[in-house]
Design brief:
heterodimer; A: about 375 residues; alpha/beta; Rossmann fold; five-stranded parallel β-sheet; 5 strands; about 10% strand; B: about 775 residues; alpha+beta; 29 helices; about 45% helix
Chain lengths: ~375, ~775
Amino acid sequence: MSKRKSKETSSVNGECISQVQRILRERFCHQCPNGKLFGVQLQYKHLLELLKRTTIHGESNSALIIGPRGSGKTMLLNHVLKELMEAKQVRENLMQVHLNGLLQTNDKIALKEITRQLQMENVVGDKVFGSFAENLAFLLEALKKGDRDSSCPVLFILDEFDLFVHHKNQTLLYNLFDISQSAQTPVTVIGLTCRQDILELLEKRVKSRFSHRQIYLMNSFDFKQYLRIFKEQLYLPAEFLYKPFTQKWNKNVQSLSEDRTVQDVLQNHFHCSKDLRSLHMLLMLALSSITVSHPFMTGSDLLEASKSCRMDSKANIVHGLSVLEICLIIAMKHLNDVYEGEPFNFQMVYNGEMKVSTLKSINITLLLLK
Amino acid sequence: AEIMNTRQQCKRIYSWVGRAKSSDQKMKTFQYRGILIKSERSLTEMCILLGEFVLVEGANADQPFVAKLLKLYEDGSQEKHAVVQWFSRITELPLNKRKLLRREVSPQEIFLDKAPGYGTDINVETIIKNVKVIPLAPEEVVPVRSKGKQIFFVKESWDGKCFKPLSPGLLSELKEAEKKKRVGSPTPLTDCQVFPSDFICSLKAETDRVTRSTMKTKNIQMEIESRHSASKSSLSKERHSQRVANGINTPGARKKLQLNSMYTAILYLIVMAMENVQGQVQNLCLLITMIIRETKQQQKTFSYQIIIPRCCCAAVFKLSLDIHCLVFPNLFFFFSFLNISEQDQEDDYLPSTDCSDSSSSEEEESMVPCTPKRKTRSSTTLSTPKSSRKPSDTTPANTPRKSVRFLEAIGLKNICSGLHVSTIPGSLPCREEEFQDIYNFVESKLIDGTGGCMYISGVPGTGKTATVHEVIRCLQQAAENDELPSFQFIEINGMKLTDPHQAYVQILQLLTGQKVTATHAAELLAKLFSTPGPKRKTTVLIVDELDLLWTRKQDVMYNLFDWPTQRQAKLIILAIANTMDLPERIMMNRVASRLGLTRMSFQPYTYKQLQQIISSRLNHIKAFEEDAIQLVSRKVAALSGDARRCLDICRRSTEICEFSSQKSASGLVSMAHVMKAIDEMFSSPYINSIRNASLHEQMFLKAIIAEFRRSGLEEATVQQIYHQHVALCRIEGLQIPTVSEIMAICSRLGACRFLLVESNNKYLHVRVRLNISQDDVMYALKQE
């Protein structure tokens, strides 16, 4: 009887663990729009207001979101768009064009993509995919025809904005900003970039047409907030199926955050990099150690994860070398110290090896093979 | 002198008809009475005489212009010229004026164009062929016709302001001319042989004529009539036919226009007959009889009741001969008969003139230019357009138009929209002088009908394009009010072209709507601007962002600036660019010299001007504190003088004001808000982002500076920096990062461009430089 019960609980546990892993993995790996934003309330408000002006009042605008990698630029934008889309008026009207500097490597491709995303390719038949010049003229004409009150607002999102800057003459940027500065179809151009010097890259005419609205994302939180984020990231949602398990899990997370070793691990991590993606990486590794027999995360799990995170890749390779190879590397190290980084040849290494090594039987051919 | 016309694929050869009828020794011009166009391909000849209507080659090959030939002459340089009276299709008239007509206009209806602005002197080689134009009285309806042959109807005249029905005098005159032409002109010469040989014989010395003049047609007509009368052997008929002949030539054929509907019907018949195939002849006869029956019923008082049916009989008789080309004279006869009968009701019998008596062709030919009737007629047709074509010399008001808007509700949203760069202000403050200069330049060129270039420079955001557009708007308004000759305005932008050569394509497309390749467009444009284009308005071309039209050979720029120098081009170019010395810097000498020295530079706005701009944009609504406006304008003036920036800051500060929790006491946008907006836009992000970087990132920056100081160089490898980093960590008592971590930090800082990192895979030996000043880094790190 008791055996069956324990079996039952273990099966429940198994179910639980797989659910937990699924939820948390989703949280860590995907940039899911349900994820939480941390410390960007001001920027969020600013961006939301800006987009509302375009979508509801038809005011053209342009803005740049600037922040280091992993600071949540795309996430911020996605959150704002999600909130915007809740309004029916916006959902029906707003047209979005997503471009990425890594994909649209020149203006020609970018224009085709814009036409495709605006669903205008069938308007002109195969003409759009005629020449680049025709394409540009067509698109400009199309956008020019609109006016503030009657046309659908168009939102241009340029990911990796800094790569668009290198396009010839910055034609695309000039035209987008020019539309945003003239009484045509309401347009908002949002650029996402990690380069702080982006404004200096813009050509003077393009720069003049850009409205100079910049939204900076900085990861501006201290360790206390970082700990809070850590907890938030691990907490199971209240609507999780197995209530007792959720309680236990969340209590465990709370105790983890108070644990000294865990705090040390996180502190080191925080010192190294503040971006949340690296935290996700750490938690992901820790999460993978969770099994049915080991249902709750412990401090040692995190420590292990942190170790594998911080692993020096080159040093790791050395661990797997044979004795002979290690001998050779040691000899090189000696030479390096002697010559202070000056280059040396194999003969010198071999001679040094002979001097140092106790293994007289080493064959030169063997070494050469290596 | 035969001139090969290479312009069309089908070559045409133009030669004069007859000898010069009069010559002006002083001006060295010779006038002719007709032109012979020989088409090489089809080997047909076409003769066009003065007073006939012709099609003239235009920019658009599908829609040649319609004109009436008034004068043909050859000047000293052996060039054949023609003076014409233009007729405009509805599509050639300004769009906004078309609605003045308040009716549907058939594409075949044309308007006597008395609007000033078109040159009437054209090169003869632009004439394609003659065309039929039928005048209609105001009550008449434009007949709906199949698209087979080109026939135009003229009903109203257009003087640039409004449409007026043709004056009765003019109408009758046109009708007369039309009548004359009916028989002879549109048919090629070879048709002559259709006439029975005895006909030709009876026309004395007719055979030596090259063409059939209008006089000759009259002659034929008379002959036909005399034949009738001969067949009927009735003297009264004879007399009558004489009268008919007189009627044709009577100059002042004033009409009561009672029979207008009849005329239309008959005209319609004639037109039908012209295009007729034989099968329709029977219908024609039936129609004629019906018409006559109707005439009888309607016009009880008609004094020639008996004669009409007889005429009709004659017509039917002729028709039954099945030589359908003879139908026309008869119809014509009939038509003219109605004409004269009407006239007779009004005035008394006109005494027969010399014209009807004379039958010798030589005599007639010599008479053509000197008969007094002719002269009076030609003078009337000439004088009417001339009088209306007087160039208006009143200068338009040059002040920019001011729009006064009243905003009842002062919401910040409204203010925001007023501050948006896209809003086109009613007036452009602080650019009055530049406006005036550009306006005067373009205006003078427009009035002179010449071309020219102007180069406009200035840093971005100083209102170059806006001012030029404003000028064009004012000019267009002036042209609408007939204070200036109308002009065509087109605009290209170097930034909106994918390739400098696309400029040709765009210009051509904007001018004529054709879509061709760049090289072909260049050829067509060169042709368009270098030939004395008939009926071309002056073109005002704005070339924005000129510097982007630069090519290695500079052919685009060269062509652009070469066209206006040609006499016939009538092209005014306003070139806009950012740099003042662009012509000296990037242009070859020959391009720069063609651009000329008409330059203008827009200075960056001073703070006072910016202040004025803001307050004018705000419509003088008090939304900003005085100090706030001053702060914005001073800040921007010190930075760039860019009006766009100024407006952007103002817009942002109103937004900040709107959302800020603590509103200033006055509820206006205050200094604090403006300061915040300026900070957002202009503060360097570096210091703030360094402060927000992680500890090791900051440490790495410190290590770089330490390494730079140690080595005395501004460059170091990651390995060297790593050593410094480790040392610093030891001092601070921090965990020492691994090499991998250091590399990650380095690449992160590199991505944000705090550092410039060599892009290769040398791992630890990658060289690194700082992208920001060491002082900035030290300042940012010291605060902690």
